[in-house]
Write a sequence for this structure.
């Protein structure tokens, strides 16, 4: 009989609204990276919170190294050699990295930190996890904070590592480094549970994979005996289209033209350095690049949320500076913001959110009075058309799930914005089904003649949708290629700052 380091048997967890874990049996071996795959809401985090003692299961048993255990708190879990990196970090912002690590090791604060510093430095060196021990947590990037969480866990001597969607906050390069680290831990005989909804990552890093759907285990498989298509089908419950059908683009007039645009960031340094490009009707112009290279400032300047210091922006041949906000509002521009919180008002209903940009026009408004019937009818039509899952149009927007919120924003923006669509990370954090839906919709609009500016860190997304691809690095567009001739390696290099021909 095979020995498992972790065995969760018949785990059941009910929440008032949902059966989050429905008789889940999940077994992990020492020395493997085991992916726990599922869409948003499948029950992954719940199961891991049970293993880590944050929730207690309603039914089921847990065995560690073949011995039945009770895990009633994270303390119990830690004592059993379990460590967890949560989606939200548990660090104290005003303390240094070293102080945070010492706290987690329960070293009294009056003890000198020198001994622990030596130990932490050893761990960092051994696993290639670099971070400034004397920096305050608030000074760190998200990737660095995650590294601190990982160092904490290793210093506590964990044998079982749980990482809950760790790559969602990392750049492609940081993700590569994380994977190298995970493989190293596994090769030392530790058990790694890698929670994700990304198929590519499962294929890249795991030895085995367990697929969850709606609280149930669909299968546990050897990664080498499966593939993305098979996993997607198990995860979503139906076939998923990977290759979007992309007909050749029919390029029309220039719609958005940016000329030598220069923009500052919040710290007052130059974030966008003399950037120029044009997006035509009927094409998707994709801007790839690691976040933080000026994409945010570029978009904010285009949509008028940030002042530029020089350069020009034309929409439909008119310089936008010469327009007032109302004129810009009339220009049929759709804006799908990076931060979904910018795109809706949580305490307003779905219907109200859907007419946010048109409530002052007929048929919704006449003689300054709102026409509730017209609003209701319009909202119901969009809910239907964009498959927004909500009990009805009067539900507060904040109660929608991420995927449905994004559909609501798209419904509103794309109904108004027929000329120009500015989409920033439009599928970030969405499940496979919603991602597919959003991408198809953008392609449809492009086929109908909209000009689409797509900004995404997801290179696959850029490649699947764009007609032309630009790469942004340190505020500059350092290369532009026709999508048909695009070479992934070359784009990857450009994302790291290597210019063409270097
Ligand atoms: N604390 C909670 N209270 C009520 N419902 C919860 C709670 N935590 C999770 N759920 C629900 O349980 C289901 C599974 O959630 P979760 O385990 O977070 O899924 P995943 O991590 O796979 O996205 C979801 O429907 C979610 O809304
Ligand atoms: Mg989760």
């Amino acid at each position: 009989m095979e020995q498992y380091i972790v065995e969760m048997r018949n785990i059941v967890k009910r929440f008032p609204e949902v059966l989050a874990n429905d008789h889940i049996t999940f077994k992990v071996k020492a020395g493997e990276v085991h992916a726990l795959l599922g869409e948003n809401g499948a029950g992954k985090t719940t199961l891991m919170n049970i293993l880590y003692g944050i929730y207690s299961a309603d039914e089921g048993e847990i065995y560690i190294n073949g011995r039945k255990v009770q895990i009633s708190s994270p303390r119990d879990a830690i004592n059993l050699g379990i460590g967890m990196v949560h989606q939200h970090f548990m660090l104290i912002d005003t303390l240094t990295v070293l102080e945070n690590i010492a706290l987690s090791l329960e070293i009294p604060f009056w003890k000198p930190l020198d001994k622990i510093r030596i130990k932490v430095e050893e761990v960092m060196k051994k696993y290639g996890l670099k971070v400034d021990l004397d920096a305050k947590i608030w000074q760190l990037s998200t990737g660095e904070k995650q590294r601190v969480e990982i160092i904490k866990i290793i210093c506590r001597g964990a044998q079982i590592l749980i990482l809950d969607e760790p790559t969602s906050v990392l750049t492609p390069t940081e993700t590569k480094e994380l994977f190298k680290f995970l493989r190293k831990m596994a090769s030392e005989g530790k058990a790694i549970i890698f929670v994700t909804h990304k198929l590519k990552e499962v294929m890249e890093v795991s030895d085995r994979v367990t697929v969850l759907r709606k609280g149930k285990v669909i299968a546990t498989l050897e990664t080498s005996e499966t593939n993305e298509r098979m996993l997607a089908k198990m995860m979503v419950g139906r076939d998923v289209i990977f290759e979007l059908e992309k007909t050749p683009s029919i390029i029309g007039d220039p719609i958005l033209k940016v000329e030598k645009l220069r923009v500052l960031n919040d710290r007052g340094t130059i974030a966008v350095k003399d950037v120029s490009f044009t997006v035509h009707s009927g094409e998707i112009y994709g801007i790839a690049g690691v976040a933080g290279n000026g994409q945010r400032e570029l978009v904010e300047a285009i949509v008028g949320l940030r002042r530029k210091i020089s350069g020009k922006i034309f929409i439909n041949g008119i310089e936008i500076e010469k327009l007032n906000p109302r004129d810009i509002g009339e220009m049929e521009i759709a804006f799908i913001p990076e931060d979904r919180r910018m795109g809706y008002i949580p305490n307003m209903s779905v219907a109200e959110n859907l007419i946010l940009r048109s409530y002052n026009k007929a048929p919704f408004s006449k003689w300054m009075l709102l026409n509730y019937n017209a609003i209701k009818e319009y909202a119901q039509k969009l809910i239907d058309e964009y498959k927004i899952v909500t009990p009805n149009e009067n539900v507060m927007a904040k109660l929608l799930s991420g995927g449905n919120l994004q559909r609501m924003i798209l419904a509103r923006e794309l109904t108004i914005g027929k000329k120009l669509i500015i989409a920033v990370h439009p599928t970030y954090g969405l499940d496979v089904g919603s991602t597919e839906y959003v991408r198809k919709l953008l392609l449809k609009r492009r086929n109908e003649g909209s000009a689409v500016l797509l900004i995404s860190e997801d290179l696959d997304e850029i490649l699947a949708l764009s007609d032309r691809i630009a790469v942004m690095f340190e505020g500059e567009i350092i290369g532009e290629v026709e999508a048909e001739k695009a070479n992934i390696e070359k784009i990857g290099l450009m994302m790291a700052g290597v210019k063409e021909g270097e």
